[in-house]
């Protein structure tokens, strides 16, 4: 058969080719735009929006962040309207941006901006000279910038912007990403390619991507970024690297983002040639003061240091028989003249301490309450172990009333399937922040109460075109930012916003995708580590199941340390008959956790060692309940695949195909987790599978032999 | 001052914002399109082109590569015409694509396709039924595909496509990229981010970028790709990794590209549990046969293996007292039933051999001439050392008449400033291929004469948005492909095409940029290693100058081994009074190289140790000439910066800014090379600087102390 195509046919072929051949970036929807995806709205919505954004008014006596806000609003509305601007030059002003101090137009409106602080905003529909306008106001340019992004979001989601009043201010002051980015470009626990920071070409070349990174963060209210890994190299504090960090700070400043650096505690020895890094040694303190002066000369709004000390091989004050407070306060004194702060991590577990690892941070830090300088904030992981699929809240929250604490969340999914698994972390983050400390306040409320407050998230960002290695992992960055602004925010509502901004507002898509996300973290818990189990993954990579591992040098590196399964039962007894970790919680909480019957079932095996035939609330035995959870997790992922396949007509082909491929991997992995785990537990408890349960596809030896070579995120 | 902007003003602001704020990928010209950048032509050119591409005719009984060709032509013309296709359905056919065997329309034309082989093409303007048409024909789909890309290039460059006849066939059969990509994503000597291959998500996810990679290669005629590093891991030959390679092969097949793998010689031990990898052991041979069968089942058009054996720590047949021919022939027997080949590297230098390193490959391989199976091709680096800024051609070229040889070029600039320096390698490649072997034929002619022939290029490609870490490094990929097709092609003409396709055809831009590129490699030689010097760079990173290094374990790792500078003179005596490496060349060449007066000055110190006051053709002393070269190199780069700055109005802002930043680095680096080198040579020869020469900015100690931490491309 011969074919002859005219130019109409060519159009057809071009469209066909666009399906068959992946198109170039110029046309492909490759995920780069993140949630700042400004596409033309449906006509009815457009007609409504157009007059409300016809003219943007701001004052150039406002600061650079207001100028940034105006540019962002222009860019967004032009892309969303998607048409040639109207030709009249006489349209009335329709949006007014600014601060009372910088804009006479705002000042004249005499808006009530009390309670908005340095970063809050007010969006209000009002009239000026009888004309309807939308005002975006704040006490500073930062507030105006955040308010403008909130206004853009309204427009983007097709929500009316007439007759509105939105007041919002962040509950936490430091909303910070921690990049575990090494200076050689490798990102520890990074699943999205090389580090975003091209240290090699900085400071000469400022990749446009740095600006897009800042835009994305500013749109969420993220106001700080720690550029380098907490496992820090001293080199990041040398003059060439300070100049590189300064170049990034220059890019981020118009977006209200400060730069921080992770500091290696022994830098005075490695760079300064000192014989000690003892925090009480005057020469050491002087070295850090001089170093702080040097950094602030290059970066006038530098934020300060993040320190991982005496943890997993990093040096710290304990090497000199000093306390963590001694170390933190010495650094705090160095940065104080510049208004800087020190974020000091509480993630410690001693190499020689035989105590339950879950107890060690509390044991070490609780006695230091009240001894940290007021420009120190202690960064505490959400749970007492290490970013597991589910942990109870960290007992330090509520236990250090005289110390500023900031929770550390992990956005990158080290223990939750990397970028490969669709696991929306909003519910995990919210669970951590909403946890009742037993002291009348939630974790989120406890940490917000301090003069210094914040939330840290270990970034999942790299040079991957999608930024995060998958489309759905973008939602985890997004949810972190939204919860840092308001720890009480609803993760499902956050997901709904993200879906609308990322995929469009078609309700046939928004509802199902939001629902897919909502249960995805619980599904991962189910197929990986149900009922309070934790730390069951393979050594090094942390990706696949290996509950059988028992031969690593340190006891608390081995999965068997955590699950303690034997013929009689399973679980870690953290009551008085065990490690008594429950005693680290407030009395009410401790009392409930001390009893299996009053311990929430999702945390049951975290706190209790129970017989395999322990009777669960469902009436099932513990063993049958475990198997049911594994099955439920696998079924959820299978369902994710079906639902996503059905959404194909509503999603652009590139983003649909990538997600479909990753879901295919996830389903196979969920089965792997379930089957390997069941095969192992069966080998320990000798019990038959509950009736109706599907036996593992392979025998235990097969799962033990399975290798995970060259897993990403695990630097040598 | 207050501002009020109407929608026209908003348009202005949007444009301003586009300049101030880097725009998203949807609008930014970020280099991703490479030379396949199809932009609307000027109106006059459009009017000329439009009727000639109005209707594309092909037959679906042709193979998938013809379908690919038609889709590519559709895509290109639609983007270049940049308008809505005409609405007539009755336009005459204007382009006819196909093979005589697959397309009756082509068969009826009775074109003379003799001499075009399997991959050549004929583009000819002719008439069909009285209507003018452009025919693109080949004996196979591959020829049609390459011809179609050639036609697209004509259109893209605004060249008329009426009244043309273009016949072209590749001079070399294997036109292959060697990826030094490790399975963990790190690219050895890679300066463009992580490996393009996301082994982690393969085979489930086929990144659209894989297709764009194939398109770019096919447009140059590159027909093979070795996916993994020659420093190979056995794991790449396991079933999971074969499946991943197969997924890539599926993507590449429609573009005429075969997949090859680097093979680790001891894989039968590591994967097969054998006690030996002795090539003469029957079990070893059987293991490789079974492995080849397994790979070809998954990849029916698999190409074969590339092997680095007994070189820099890699295992090989010499470990069993067998020859390279023994090893290669054993593998060749395994792949022969499938039509596969073995590319066997001649880059060897023995750990214990005190002989001049430049001589060792010849010494070891020359005696094996005629002993390699006919499906083995020996891959020989262009020069006898290792991809230095300038080397003489490798003496093996012309010395193994009974062995198929393929030159190995390095596209990635390990020794030429990484992605940071603008160094166009076309002249280096052409110099290597045009070198007179002294046996009546150039290197390019010698290697083309064999039944099996080819050219290998070590790829400079990674996940960087620009693919190669800079815009101008794209030209090196391009030049490699063009020279693999025709080793006699003119590098300046290639540069001119590349500039036109990459930046547009404005003559105010094409001329100057082509000229900038033309001299850039000589400039790098001048500021790094003039007059035949080589291997003067710092240990490990290979980026900056360190001619003083003398303390590395093996003599031939040290720069002092190569330059042999002392108070009396400088250079490596490779004549009879020295290592007599000249004797490895054909007699005429050897005779000329044996005498400084008849040795080309660019190679003078490669072959001769000469006194500092040796009189050069310029009349200057050697020392003064060296300094003049350093100065010339620095001046060239300074001039590059000036010229590029002046071109700002003609280049899109993103690509201009990136290149300007890199040129800034390059100029500083050129000064560093010059000043460090001159400081060191002065310390050796004790001579004053020639009159007028600028003294080094710092003293020698400063240059010696300078560190290059975290240089890319140097895996731990």
Automatic annotation (TrEMBL), chains A, B:
Residues 155-467 form the Glycosyl hydrolase family 67 catalytic domain. Keywords: Carbohydrate metabolism, Glycosidase, Hydrolase, Polysaccharide degradation, Signal, Xylan degradation. The active site is at 312 (proton donor), 386 (proton acceptor), 414 (proton acceptor). Its EC number is 3.2.1.131. Residues 468-692 form the Glycosyl hydrolase family 67 C-terminal domain. GO terms for molecular function: alpha-glucuronidase activity; xylan alpha-1,2-glucuronosidase activity. GO terms for cellular component: extracellular region. Transmembrane segments: none annotated. Residues 1-28 form the signal peptide. Residues 34-151 form the Alpha glucuronidase N-terminal domain. InterPro entries: A-glucoronidase_C_sf (IPR037054), GH (IPR017853), Glyco_hydro_67_aGlcAse (IPR011395), Glyco_hydro_67_aGlcAse_N (IPR005154), Glyco_hydro_67_C (IPR011099), Glyco_hydro_67_cat (IPR011100), Hex-like_dom2 (IPR029018). One of its GO terms (biological process) is xylan catabolic process. It catalyses: Hydrolysis of (1->2)-alpha-D-(4-O-methyl)glucuronosyl links in the main chain of hardwood xylans. Belongs to the glycosyl hydrolase 67 family. Homodimer. This is Xylan alpha-1,2-glucuronidase. It comes from Sphingomonas aerophila.
């Amino acid at each position: 058969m011969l074919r002859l195509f005219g130019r109409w046919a060519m159009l057809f072929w071009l469209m066909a080719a666009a399906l068959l051949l992946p198109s170039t970036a110029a046309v492909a929807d490759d995920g780069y735009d993140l949630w700042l995806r400004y596409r033309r709205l449906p006509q009815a919505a457009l007609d409504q929006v157009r007059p409300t954004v016809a003219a943007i008014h701001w004052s150039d006596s406002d600061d650079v962040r207001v100028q940034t806000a105006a540019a962002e609003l222009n860019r967004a509305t032009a892309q969303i309207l998607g048409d040639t601007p109207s030709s009249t030059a006489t349209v009335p002003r329709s949006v007014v941006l600014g601060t009372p101090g910088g804009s006479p137009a705002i000042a004249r409106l005499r808006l009530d901006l009390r309670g908005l602080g340095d970063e809050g905003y007010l969006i209000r529909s009002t009239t000026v000279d009888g004309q309807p306008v939308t005002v975006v106001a704040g006490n500073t340019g930062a507030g105006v910038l955040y308010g403008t992004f909130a206004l853009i979001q309204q427009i983007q989601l097709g929500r009316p912007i007439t007759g509105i009043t939105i007041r919002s201010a962040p509950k936490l002051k430091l909303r910070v990403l921690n990049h575990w980015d090494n200076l050689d470009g490798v990102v520890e626990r990074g699943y999205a390619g090389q580090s975003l920071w091209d240290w090699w070409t900085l400071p000469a070349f400022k990749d446009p991507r740095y600006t897009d990174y800042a835009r994305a963060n500013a749109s969420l209210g993220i106001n700080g970024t720690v550029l380098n890994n907490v496992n820090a190299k001293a080199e990041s504090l040398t003059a060439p690297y300070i100049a590189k960090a300064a170049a990034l700070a220059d890019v981020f400043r118009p977006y209200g983002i400060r730069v921080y650096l992770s500091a290696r505690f022994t830098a005075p020895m490695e760079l300064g040639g000192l014989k000690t890094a003892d925090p009480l040694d005057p020469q050491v303190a002087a070295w850090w003061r001089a170093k702080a002066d040097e950094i602030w000369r290059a970066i006038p709004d530098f934020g300060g240091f993040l320190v991982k000390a005496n943890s997993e091989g990093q040096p710290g004050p304990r090497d000199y028989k000093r306390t963590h407070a001694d170390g933190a306060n010495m650094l705090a004194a160095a940065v104080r003249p510049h208004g800087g702060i020190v974020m000091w991590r509480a993630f410690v577990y001693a190499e020689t301490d035989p105590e339950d690892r879950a107890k060690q941070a509390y044991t070490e830090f609780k006695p230091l309450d009240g001894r940290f300088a007021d420009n120190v904030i202690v960064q505490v992981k959400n749970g007492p172990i290490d970013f597991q699929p589910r942990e109870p809240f960290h007992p330090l929250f509520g236990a250090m009333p005289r110390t500023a604490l900031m929770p550390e969340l992990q956005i990158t999914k080290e223990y939750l399937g990397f970028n490969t698994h669709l696991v929306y972390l909003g519910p995990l983050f919210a669970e951590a922040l909403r946890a009742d400390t037993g002291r009348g306040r939630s974790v989120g409320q406890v940490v917000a109460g301090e003069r210094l407050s914040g939330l840290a998230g270990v970034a999942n960002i790299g040079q991957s075109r999608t930024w995060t290695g998958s489309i759905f992992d973008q939602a985890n960055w997004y949810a972190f930012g939204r919860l840092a602004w308001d720890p009480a925010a609803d993760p499902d509502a956050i997901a709904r916003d993200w879906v609308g901004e990322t995929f469009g507002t078609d309700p046939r898509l928004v509802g199902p995708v939001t629902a897919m996300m909502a249960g995805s973290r619980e599904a991962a818990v189910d197929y990986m580590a149900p009922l309070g189990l934790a730390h069951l993954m393979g050594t090094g990579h942390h990706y696949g199941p290996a509950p059988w591992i028992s031969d690593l040098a340190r006891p608390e590196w081995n999965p068997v340390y955590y699950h303690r399964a034997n013929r009689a039962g399973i679980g870690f007894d953290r009551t008085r008959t065990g490690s008594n970790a429950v005693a680290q919680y407030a009395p009410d909480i401790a009392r409930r956790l001390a009893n299996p019957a009053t311990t929430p079932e999702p945390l049951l095996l975290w706190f209790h060692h129970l017989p395999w035939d322990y009777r669960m609330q469902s009436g099932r035995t513990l063993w049958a309940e475990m198997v049911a959870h594994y099955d439920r997790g696998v079924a959820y992922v299978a369902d994710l695949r079906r639902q996503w396949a059905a959404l194909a007509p509503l999603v652009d082909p590139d983003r649909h195909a990538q997600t479909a491929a990753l879901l295919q991997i996830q389903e196979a992995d969920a089965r792997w987790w379930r089957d390997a785990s069941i095969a192992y537990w069966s080998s320990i408890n000798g019990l038959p599978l509950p009736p109706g349960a599907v036996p593992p596809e392979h025998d235990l030896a097969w799962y033990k032999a399975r290798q995970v070579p060259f897993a990403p995120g695990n630097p040598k």
